[in-house]
Amino acid sequence: MRKTRTQTINALPPLRRRQVLAGMAGVAAAGLLPRGAFAQDGNVLKIRGNANPSSLDPATGGAGSDHVYLYNFYDTLVDWEPETLAPKPGLAASWEFPEPKTLVLKLQEGVTFHDGSPFNAEAVKFNLDRARTAGVSNIKSDVANIAEVEATDELTVTLTLSAPDTALPLILSDRAGMMISPDALGNDPEATVEREPVGTGPWTFGSWTDGEKITGSRFEDHWREGVPGVDNVEFVIIPETATGLRAIQSGQVNIAYQLDERQQQLIDKMPNLTLVSGPTLYIYQLYVNSARGALQDVRVRRALSLAIDREAYVAATQAGVGEVATMNLPQAHWAWSEAASKHVYHDPEEARRLLEEAGYGDGLELDFRGYPDQASVQRQEVLMAQWKKIGVTGRFRNAPIAEVAGAFFGEEKAGDLLLSAWTGRPDPSLTYALLYSEESYYNPGRVTPPEGYMEALQASRESTDQADRAAALARVQDIAMEAHLSIPLSIRYEVDATGEAVTDFVANLLGKPKFRDVKLG
User: Fold this and answer.
1) Number of domains the chain is built from
2) Is residue 2 part of a domain?
3) Which of 145, 290, 447, 506 gives 165 a disulfide partner, CB atoms 3.0 to 4.6 angstroms apart?
4) Which stretch of DSSP H or E encloses residue 400?
5) Three-class SS of residue 7?
6) Which domain CATH number covers 39?
7) What pLDDT, in 10s, does the model give residues 128-141?
8) pTM for the full model?
9) Could you list the residue range(s) of the whole structural domain that residue 307 is in?
10) Quick count: other Cβ atoms within 10 Å of Cβ 363?
């Protein structure tokens, strides 16, 4: 029996018409796969993973692709609605701001970590202090506004803030809100659990074979009733999207997420698969080390951006499934800014003029970094062909995501530009803090953002009114895009495929699926 295809739908938030992913209420299945198509023992949900994780410790990892793995082993203090990313209770049953610089979290009762130790206010204090201050933490920028964490009682945590921060609840739905067992770290904030995660999540960690497989088994004492929906989860790591599509078509996996946009029409024609598609916060972009050589000059960075025909890029690399990116948010998002978008357009003549003015009229050679999969290489080829027209040359040095990201963003600072993606964050102010704050991991040159940037960013966190926040974020984005500290390219649309046995798969606007409620019929 052929399933009904999901359709992109529209909702209307206060500020802007928002497209949201179809199938948000769940993707229902009518049939079963042939007997033997999947492992029967233990009800195993098999998922095509698109990259080897950089780490399974949320504080030390650096790749946006890690989240899809982390969600299985860790719960977050705050959760969000899939359709809108509006915050809702997680490990924190409720929260309030009794005054602008104080956030009080009330925790769920009866929660334990996978190792049997209790989840309580002291565990939250340990995790947040580790995120704020530990040398191993890559997420200090996420929680920079937290000045002090107090375990007020067994199930109450009081955060004293250095400045008002209404974005903090959603920040605590991301890496900073993923709680690790302090006992698993030996109560040492400098210790790590990069290969043996111990959280409160739906599954307990089983094994990790690099580049091949990650497994987990049901956490019988999970605090959410009916979670997880299957006994075991298994990620089969398949970077190539063509191989990933073959894997779900043949029954090797039940779900393949973040497939290539060019595969959407193929999936829609396969009677044994269901397509889930729609806009996400996933942005293809070029990270720019603005502390290196010619890239210190804003005219060079702007020239690189102006040389790119983004409409042609989307047509060639995404088969037209997606949209041109003019900032680090899609047009569907309530904080998208028309004023900021005017800094990003196609004008190769202006690009050549800027290069000549900057002293590179005879040409410029740059060191590009990227990934070796077929889709990434095609994106590289399209960009190099466009840059060649303005006299910019070079070559891409490719390696797996974790390796390239570690070298580019870490101490080595290898390469001038990295063709990758920004995988989005639940609150837009966190996106702009992480991309451009001076000490942020994702600011490879650790350059100071332009004057007024941090003040505008802080202003975006001082109100709970969405219109006020959007106005402040418009200023943030205008400054960032004018400085061309990164070069956004296009918006990735969700292209997921599920097999006939799958029920209750829910995609989300963030573009990072959670699988805790998925069942196999």
Assistant:
1) 3
2) no
3) 145
4) none
5) coil
6) 3.40.190.10
7) 999 999 999 999 98
8) 0.78
9) 280-492
10) 11
